[in-house]
Amino acid sequence: SAVISQKPSRDICQRGTSLTIQCQVDSQVTMMFWYRQQPGQSLTLIATANQGSEATYESGFVIDKFPISRPNLTFSTLTVSNMSPEDSSIYLCSGLRQGGGYTFGSGTRLTVV
Amino acid sequence: DAKTTQPNSMESNEEEPVHLPCNHSTISGTDYIHWYRQLPSQGPEYVIHGLTSNVNNRMASLAIAEDRKSSTLILHRATLRDAAVYYCILSLGVGGTSYGKLTFGQGTILTVHP
What we know:
By secondary structure, chain A is mostly beta strands. Chain A is built from no helices and eleven strands. In chain A, strand 4 and strand 5 form a beta hairpin.
């Protein structure tokens, strides 16, 4: 089954700065997604990362705040821009395998101070 | 998107079977039923998924009601490592506008006692 490597695993950032999270899949997946998980909560879908085109964002999430790239089938990045303490969360990427199951990265724990 | 309803928490004893229920009364014909679990400080882990027929793998079994409005994840012998949050999720099949997306609910917190 596909394995997702996500980095960094954690970071502490100053407010007003930006952080780019990378997600690398070791085999092809048909779709890739980015989620946010706030402390003690379930996962919330941010967007679907589309290869070679603009990501598809869920309600409440915008490209200016969370720009996403997916230059090929196995790699995607999520940038959290102009961070505030409210952006402190765990960010996870996910891939839909050709067999139908989803695989998840271990997450990036972001703290904004 | 079709929604799922799960109990907030369940408890089990080690080496006993666990039946985790999920209601999805608004499921459509092309929705797949997925189960994932999340251990502390980890990303969600695939457990099992199915469409209409019951499914078995080395981790668990998925029993799907004949009308597909409910399903049950069965862990045949719970271990302490099975303590996690278990999510029952529906995803649209090919052709749906939400194809591929997983919408997580709050899940069931499973506690396993030694």
